[in-house]
Design brief:
Chain lengths: ~450, ~500
């Protein structure tokens, strides 16, 4: 153990003094309780250490092998978006008082984190129109799954109806979580890109714990979710909405449309794509379900002198208190990303969030019309948020390969999850895409089409 | 330090200020009323703050000054492994080729990212002694649940549907029984013996044909190595159960002993503990799961495999438990862990363990004269003191923890594990200097003296923080979980 490393400060003198204080001669004596048979005696067969410079060089090289959205114009969304990220976000979350802290279990020295999360909870409530929000979940998919299992526990029913217009990967996660608790998951098919209401009426019954829909949905459509809510409420089940919080800058919040639980991912607010994670799930609900919420909640209180302060609260729901009776097993969440989202929501503010949401509709609209003008069939509906479904009449993978050579990352291949939509691509447009970039995409695809 | 209330961002908001710079709208305006039914057009604005960019920076800087992190000072929080978070990790995670890539891009365009994922899987397999690793779970508890689901699928694939019980020692982390419940199992608690280790007789009496698995942390939450691990493995395997390793305490045995060699069938790791992914104020974490070959068919999908010189995600896994998270896990966190492992190498990881354990034993022996030490044998990376001697003098462990704040230290984990009265669980980690350990020890000794001479100083602590003790009962009884404008402000607005 004579090796020197910049992360290990002990000197040989330190070590010898410490061994003397313990009353032993060698460090090995401290490991004698590990039975001989299971002691690992060799050297781990892993790569040798590299210096900071050499490692940075190697990893920068690996990074450069990836096509990123700074060097390519991306039209790929499907739940993860290249949005405007205010530069200030990274400055705030780089303050190491935030990122090197643990969960704020000692509130007197964690008021910064606690207050920031309290503000996050408030902003999520404002956008979703719900009574309360927790401090974050892993991501939108697991937040939706936990909403489903909460509903099953709350209603003591064992069936969830999930619309086919919910993100396919989120549906997979719902399925995996539901299997854990012996809950049945039934898919409501889509009709013209929205939940098939007739099928919903047929599938729903008194055993249905909840209906899960997405707003705007996976195809970018704004569905008539209010009617879905009425149907499930008539059956005494819960209405669960997965929602892109950015869209709520212009759309009526789910809380005003009867949602019992609203979940989603705050990735559009200042969080990089990062190959799919970490992002930032949120979970918002009504006061009625407050004591069943998974994860951490921050509440306001006062100290002994009457100063305002914040603490983790209603912890009797949580695993470290209730153990096998907890509402969820979640412990770590996405606190630092919740902070990032808070900073982005603060920077955008009341006016900016509306403007950014509106820009996403205007740009998507422009793309839709540009494709239509070029003779493409753009499927489904009138209003589109971020996403449009375009029939490209040939395998999407082929189209995307050609686009890549022109410096573009093409859309999501719908045939992988919706067999009836073979040769259809899901094109995403955010406020980041310029008119020229959209025109160039249409032009290239037109050329391929010909 | 103490001052007036720190305003909320909503309270410094002023109509007309902005903090953003959106791209110019270069396409025609649209009229939402032509596109959407009125019901779906938002009528009431979301009350987000209206502030300038400097307002934002000052606000969050002020908040950061009210927060303690590892970079602020010593953080000996037991079972949490609050070690230094290397700065190269942060630089790597922010490289554009990692930060700005989309999870659904064509695989050919993200081979660099997939290469790192694959190599990390290989490194973690070797470190844990397991055959295969998935990086998908987002955190430790998520990893526990994922592994238990795989164990359930394994039993069911053998036509064995009666294994409904998961055994968990009484000293286990709370996530263990909670994860067992979420995976559809009943939890059976196994007692600890007088030496703080699993009571083998009690274990024997509780295993049977209904045993799905035993979940074990080794070293356990008392910082003690379960010396009878091979016997326990034999007992559990003997009845057809599986052995699950909670990797929260891996920092104690890395390169010294591997879960795979101890008989464990599945293991989760906390990359945000052992492998320096920062804790971020509570997350994001990353909780990869390693398994032995017989559990591998049940791994969550997709599974990352290497074909020739390229990497691909395999979806055709008929026995898989499915997808536990959208996409492939918390890439940003396992990039940091990978960078760390590559910065340390095999000797480095061994030195990490040796110093983590040496530091803990040194602190334990220095503090032993002043506090009760229920389990006096050598510890691993952490140890648990009892404050029962001080409690007799009217001072609780909570008071001593609060008093430590006045010395600039984060307190240890307190009142855990549950089998130690007035417990204080101390984990120094290997990244702290002897000077830091000594100053913490001196503070603890002074506090022990204060308990005898001037207990009120301890009972009334903390004295130097921005707020003093907060009323948690009030917070729970009358929950205020969000800011609302006061009625009179709404009237005047």
């Amino acid at each position: 153990m004579d090796m020197k490393h910049r992360y290990i400060p002990m000197t040989e003198t330190d070590r010898d003094e410490m061994l003397a204080a313990i009353g032993i001669a060698t460090v090995d004596e401290l490991f004698e309780d590990i039975p001989e048979k299971v002691r690992f005696k060799g050297e781990l067969d892993i790569k040798p250490a590299k210096s900071e410079t050499a490692l940075m060089k190697e990893l920068s090289h690996l990074a450069s092998k990836n096509a990123d959205s700074r060097h390519y114009t991306s039209f790929l969304g499907a739940g993860v978006y290249d949005h405007y990220k205010p530069i200030i976000v990274d400055h705030v979350i780089s303050r190491s008082e935030f990122y090197t802290a643990y969960t704020p279990y000692q509130p007197e020295i964690s008021q910064g984190e606690l207050q920031a999360i309290f503000e996050f909870q408030t902003m999520i409530c404002e956008l979703t129109g719900m009574d309360l929000a927790n401090s974050s979940m892993y991501d939108g998919g697991t937040a939706l799954a936990e909403a489903g299992t909460l509903a099953a526990g709350h209603t003591r029913r064992k069936k969830l109806l999930v619309s086919e217009t919910v993100h396919p990967e989120s549906r997979d996660v719902v399925q995996a979580y539901a299997a854990g608790q012996f809950i049945e998951v039934v898919t409501i098919p889509h009709k013209d890109g929205v939940t098939d209401m007739e099928k919903l009426e047929q599938l729903i019954d008194g055993d249905t714990a909840a209906v899960l829909v997405q707003y705007p949905n996976f195809f970018g459509q704004v569905e008539d979710i209010e009617s879905v809510g009425k149907i499930i409420h008539d059956q005494g089940g819960l209405f669960i909405v997965s929602s892109n919080p950015l869209a709520l800058g212009v759309l009526t919040p789910p809380g005003k449309l009867g949602a019992d639980i609203t979940v989603g991912d705050a990735q559009p607010f200042g969080i990089p794509e990062q190959f799919g994670g970490p992002h930032c799930g949120y979970f918002a609900t009504t006061t009625k379900l407050m004591r069943k919420v998974p994860g951490r909640l921050v509440g306001e209180t006062t100290d002994e002198d009457g100063r305002r302060g914040y603490v983790l609260t209603l912890q009797a729901r949580e695993q470290h208190i209730r153990r096998d009776k907890a509402t969820s097993n979640i412990c770590s969440n996405q606190a630092l990303n919740a902070l990032a989202a808070s900073v982005a929501m603060t920077a955008l503010g009341k006016v900016g969030v509306k403007e950014m949401a509106y820009q996403n509709i205007a740009k998507t609209r422009y793309a839709k019309e540009a494709f239509e003008k070029a003779g493409f069939d753009v499927k489904f509906g009138n209003v589109h948020f971020n996403e449009i479904v375009v029939d490209v009449k040939k395998p999407v993978a082929e189209v995307n390969e050609q686009l890549f050579h022109k410096g573009m990352i093409g859309g999501y291949d719908l045939s992988s999850t919706y067999p009836e939509l073979a040769n259809h691509t899901l094109i995403a447009v955010t406020e980041q895409r310029t008119k020229e970039e959209i025109d160039a995409l249409v032009q290239e695809m037109e050329a391929l089409h010909a | 330090m103490r001052n007036e209330n720190q305003p909320l961002i909503f309270e410094i908001s002023k109509e007309g200020r902005i903090g953003y710079s959106l791209p110019e709208l270069d396409v025609p305006e649209v009229d939402l009323t032509n596109l959407l039914p009125e019901t779906y057009i938002r009528s009431e604005e979301a009350e987000l703050p209206e502030v300038s960019e400097l307002d934002i920076m000052r606000h969050y800087t002020a908040l950061s000054n009210r927060n303690h992190g590892v970079d602020t000072g010593f953080y000996p929080l037991g079972s949490c492994t609050m070690k230094y978070n290397p700065k190269i990790n942060e630089a790597v995670a922010r490289l554009s080729g990692f930060a700005n890539i989309h999870p659904l891009q064509d695989e050919a365009t993200v081979q660099g990212a997939m290469e790192i994922m694959y190599d990390l899987q290989e490194h973690l397999s070797e470190i844990t002694g397991m055959d295969e690793v998935t990086l998908q779970p987002a955190a430790g508890a998520h990893g526990e649940w994922t592994a238990l689901m795989m164990i359930r699928a394994f039993h069911e694939s053998n036509g064995d549907f009666n294994r409904t019980k998961v055994l968990v020692p009484d000293s286990a982390h709370g996530t263990n029984p909670a994860s067992a419940t979420v995976a559809g199992f009943d939890t059976i608690t196994v007692k600890s013996n007088d030496n703080g280790l699993v009571d083998i007789e009690d274990l024997k009496s509780k295993v049977g044909p209904d045993t799905a698995a035993l979940m074990l942390t080794n070293p356990n939450t008392l910082g003690l190595f379960e010396e009878d691990i091979l016997k326990m493995a034999e007992i559990v395997h003997g009845v057809g159960g599986k052995l699950y390793y909670d990797g929260a305490n891996l920092n104690a045995v890395m390169a010294k002993a591997r879960p795979g060699d101890m008989g464990f069938d599945a293991v989760h790791l906390n990359l945000h503990k052992t492998f320096t992914g920062p804790h971020g104020g509570g997350g994001p974490g990353s909780g990869p799961v390693g398994v032995k070959a017989d559990l591998a068919p049940f791994l969550p999908k997709p599974v990352l495999v290497k074909e020739g010189d390229s990497y691909t995600f395999e979806y055709d896994r008929p026995q898989s438990i499915g997808r536990v998270k959208p996409f492939y896990g918390n890439f940003g966190i396992y990039l940091r862990a990978y960078t760390y492992i590559r910065s340390m190498g095999p000797d480095g990881l061994k030195a990490v363990t040796e110093y983590a354990v040496l530091n803990a034993n040194y602190m334990m022996r220095r503090l032993e004269p002043y506090f009760d030490l229920p389990y006096p044998q050598h510890c691993k990376h952490e140890f648990v003191l009892s404050g029962r001697r001080q409690k007799k003098l009217g001072v609780r462990t909570l008071d001593m923890a609060k008093r430590l704040l006045d010395f600039g230290f984060h307190p240890p984990t307190i009142y855990f594990p549950l089998n130690v009265e007035e417990g204080m669980m101390i984990e120094p980690t290997e990244t702290e200097s002897k000077e830091t350990l000594d100053s913490f020890i001196d503070a603890m000794i002074q506090i022990a003296k204060e308990v005898e001479e001037t207990p009120e100083i301890v009972q009334e602590a903390p004295h130097t923080t921005v707020v003093n003790r907060l009323d948690e009962t009030k917070a729970a009884r009358h929950p205020v979980l969000r800011f609302k404008k006061k009625e009179e402000e709404l009237v005047n607005a």
